[in-house]
Design a protein that fits this description.
- The strands form 2 sheets. A two-stranded antiparallel ribbon has the order 1-2.
- It has a domain of about 80 residues.
- It is built from 22 helices and 4 strands.
Length: about 450
Amino acid sequence: MPSASASNVRHLLSRTLFGFSSNDYEKAMGYGSLTSLVDQALLAPVPLPAAPNAWVSLVPAQAQQDSGDAGRWYTELTQWWNKRMFTQGLSMQEKVVLFLHNHFSCERAKVNYPQHMYQQNQLFRKFAFGNFKQLVKEISVDPTMLIYLDGNNSRGAAPNENYGRELLELFTIGIGNYSENDVKQAAKALSGYQVRGLTVTYDPARSYTNASLTILGKTAKFNVNSLVDLIFEQKATAEFICRKIYQHFVYYKADEVFVKKMADVFRSNNYELKPVFRFLMLSDEFYQPTIMASRIKNPQELMIGSLKLLQIPVPDWNNVFELARTLQMQLFQPPDVAGWPGQREWISSTTYSHRGGFTDSLLSGKRFNGANVTGKLNPLVYARSFANCEKAVAFVNQLIDLFIVFPISDTKRAFLLETMLEGTIAANWSTNTPQADVRIARLIKAMMRMPEYQLN
């Protein structure tokens, strides 16, 4: 059993939360063991949040598009989710919701009404620690998915194959474990559902009329539930899903031996997600030195994590919303049905500079284009929240250990210390000296501009 060492706890929080503050870290260390932290905090039940506004219950109508209300509501929905990520405390729920949003990828450009996207987002939250097989059944008749992958227009006599294909290829079993005929037959079994306002109805007249279908080697009269049950009887399904979990939370190249162990846990617990996450987070594999700081932060982790780290009381959510598009991770608008590829795709000559521009804005109060942002850091107030703030070397090392998961050299630590001291000796450091606030801001800017800060 891995220990609740400082490095292990920081690693665990960096992978399961959208960043963390010094208060979050101290609270996590207070649990005393990783088992307690995982069971009593990270995987503890969390009630569904209140809706962002009353519009979530309005029946979709073209007038909402024409007036621009739908677009404004999408912005409100996105900011609502950003705030959820920011205020999640020590719960892993929102991190899993984003994983599921990427796994069952749907684009707002096609799903015109945010009411539907809100329903799906809450569905992911409901099943974040729940039964994945049941989630697949419900997502198969979810309004957002029916609209996005054309199940809404599918008829049994001439079924649309889009969802049937992605159900097998991307959502459950993976390429190489099904045939083209399985796709065609699955599409028939999935037909008959239509979106009516905020709900979905089943119309037998739009469903298939075959006496039976043959899918994955089994001949039967299928419906959505029996089709999904059959898919989950295939050994490859648990391994495919656990591989996706591993790649998202651990490392982009899956360890197939460990994935099989995860899949065994998944199957033995009737496809409940919580036992799989628990097994993963309490395994020695998760805390290998080669795993730590091996992931490039996605834009949400970078932005929300920086806000948490600096304990910004009133973030500029418009800045976050607008910069997400520049950083190529607009929530509710993944690039395609395969979702965001992640890892090295997050970094380019354009996005890297804007990442630094975002963290700079929290210190300068200015966006890269000169516009003001709310939530500018007060360096002295922030520094004085640390017990070692008057001890230069201890203070700088404490910030480094909090800000940067990747182990940095003594040379870089010395550079960062000198960045704050700016020529004076450590013994003369005090937060009461002239320009102390400027020096602290300079230190924080330097840390957040380091390549290592992009890793978790």
